[in-house]
């Protein structure tokens, strides 16, 4: 008799898991509370996988031996509560797929910088001619890649929601870029719950494994003091010289791991800004641990082009630079963006507020921002926070209108920055949709 798996959510991770589960002999049901995309329906039908949309058939789901839950579905959803009440294990795609591969796993998590760091590590290892798959929170589904490709090393971007559903998952190298308050609406508004979720990336590591982390982040260092891990700690720092790990000194980065030494001038890094120097440190530390040649590391860091929707320079119109930072879905990411602005900035902000505290942004707004455009269904909180801080603050519910307003209030030499500090689901499908709409609106000016 075949085991049954129920998969909640028929997006990229759900469909990928379904393909792998079918291959491994499971009876599969994909169930989505909303509507499935036509492309995914076709894939599921082609693989002869049973699917439903527009609601969950609870009786069928409760026959499953195991449930894979897509990361966007909260634990407090009624169907998830019912599954847990029946004692059925609920896992994430990361957990399920990892059970079916012997590849080396490199896992990257953090509140900000994880996409850039993941992409940069993938780029470094690809340039070193390793057989690499980049998956998780970006790119193709990890499970689908495990089902369809033979890959030696996976570089996985992993969100806290995906880590909530891991049991045995253990990356050989784990990276925590930083931890700042985010998604607190999913963690009972308790920061400690969110920190604990991030540290699940290291919970199954052994002394043969590595945990790379930001030693300048007090949240991480305090947590490690109270909750030691078994893996070998590899810190990186902008402020302290380290015997083991990565550090910055005199405008250079230095990396020392297991008799491998590497150094490089910060000016030569393709990605600019302090946060990107940290991302480069984390990525080159991974490369150093894997004994990648120094010339390969250097050339990769010099040539890396960056990530779409992350401080992406779109166009210059009338000597005004338009910048797409739609991936900034929390306050800390927007802090980095505003901090990197070197010209007067018109800032487009707003969306679904996840319990944000905007006070950290006040000094940067005073220093850098000349006008604010609030782009969301409900802008009341933004208006109350920022209404007295700038001369121009305008509400809108349309990206096209937001960009047209920005065009009108800018002068030569200004920046227009989309850095929402919020999730996108009120007006857009996701942050990618929001970023693409911004770029289209700019191109249509």
How would you portray this structure in words?
Keywords: ATP-binding, Cell cycle, Cell division, Cell shape, Cell wall biogenesis/degradation, Cytoplasm, Ligase, Nucleotide-binding, Peptidoglycan synthesis. Its main location: cytoplasm. Belongs to the MurCDEF family. With 445 residues, the protein is an alpha/beta fold. The chain has three domains: 4-91, NAD(P)-binding Rossmann-like Domain (Rossmann fold, 3-Layer(aba) Sandwich), CATH 3.40.50.720; 95-303, 3-Layer(aba) Sandwich (UDP-N-acetylmuramoyl-L-alanine:D-glutamate ligase); 312-443, Mur ligase, C-terminal domain (Protein-Tyrosine Phosphatase, Chain A, Alpha-Beta Complex). It has 17 helices and 20 strands. It has helices at 12-23, 38-46, 58-61, 78-85, 93-98, 114-127, 142-148, 160-164, 191-199, 218-226, 274-289, 294-303, 331-339, 362-368, 380-386, 399-409, 431-443, and strands at 4-8, 27-32, 50-53, 66-69, 90-91, 104-109, 132-136, 153-157, 173-176, 210-214, 232-237, 245-249, 252-257, 260-265, 312-317, 320-324, 345-349, 369-375, 392-396, 415-418. The protein has a nine-stranded mixed sheet with strand order 7-8-6-9-10-11-12-13-14. A six-stranded mixed sheet has the order 15-16-20-17-18-19, with helices on both faces. A five-stranded parallel sheet has the order 3-2-1-4-5. Strand 1 (4-8), helix 1 (12-23) and strand 2 (27-32) form a beta-alpha-beta unit. Helix 6 crosses helix 12 (294-303) and helix 16 packs across helix 17.
